[in-house]
Design a protein that fits this description.
There is one protein chain. The two termini are 27 Å apart. The protein is 85% helix and 0% strand. By secondary structure, it is mainly α. It is globular and about 60 Å long. It has one domain.
Amino acid sequence: MFLSCSHFVVRVLGFIMRIWLSRELGAAAMGLVELSHSAQMLLLTPVISGLPAAVSRMSAKADGNRQVCVLRCGIVLALLTGIPLAIGAFVFRNAIAQWLGDMRTLPALILYLPCIPILGVSCALNGYFYGTGHPVPPALSELLEQIVRFFLSMRLCALLRGIPLSFRAAIPALGALAGETVSLVFMLVLCLGVLFGQRGRGEHRAIFSEMIALALPLTGMRLVSSFMRTVNAMLVPARLETSGLPQSEALSLLGMKDGMLMPLLMLPSFITCSLCMVSAPELTRRQARGLPMRRLCLRVAGAALAVGFAAMAGLWLLAPLVANTLYRQADLLPYLRRCSLLIPVLSLSQVVGGMMNGLGLQGAALRVSLISSFVNIVLTYALAVQPALRLWGVLLAMAIAQVLALVMSIHTLRRAVNDPADTAQ
């Protein structure tokens, strides 16, 4: 409940900030924001995906002294990965901007780069706290990060109205950098006693090997997902232009989809994310001790569906208010109404993915991500170019890929937990 309340506040702040940015920056600038953000997520994936899950899983199974060693190894691994990645991305910044198809994304890209090692260390600390059964510090740090990002971004938007479009599109990146820095300082202060006041026990080489073995499959899955998202972000405006739309309108539709529509569809994740954070370490402990897991999985999935259907009904009813009053985009209304049907699928997919990670099924999750992402790209390429579909084709491709991924994930999870002991229980 604490995590849900904290994530709710974070999501509400993010939602309000999205509305403010959409109004202040405009759809074209939001399109640039989403293009640069897709590249940012691709660059961040090696440090924010597999590493925190590995630290959480190893901390959940270890005792007090070994947990300290796991945390220290996680921080070192985050720095060894994040710093070279940030330096390499800075060297090839112009090539990355050209690959995205718009050099105006360059200021935002540069501001995002310091976030790579900062977020890597933060994620390692979060994984330690979740694995040891202390979810309050990560929730507080996330809340602090969002508050700093929220107020700084809004203030900069008000002060810098006359600057060029490329620099205005970099305002969210500057807000993110400031927020992540403050959040990391907060987490390090909380961990000073653990990092420097306790003596860790364990063989560092063995811990590094286990951590890398656990992190690589999930990192690969997220890399594929982030890469496909980046490709999709570049593909959508290109295919919309091919369908006959001018470049500005195609970029605006991308900003409408990723900057306005998707945050609303993912709004229930403040609860489903909490379910993932508390259920994954518990499943890890039950799996290590040979305890039943099926009933817990069913309860978590049922809760996710309940949240998803409630959010779907709410968005359907409030769609006119959201489109016409909050976003001031009347064209957004039909997309909100129809895409709200996808919310239960997204909610259930998130918790099923979290439970798969808790059970060490990263390899299976990688296969699911590869297949569904490929289907999404192929269908987007084929459907977005149709003049009768355009953005509807993009959304239809996404919906089909999400349903396919959910079906495959449920099948994998069901086989993993449906053992004789669970059935008897």
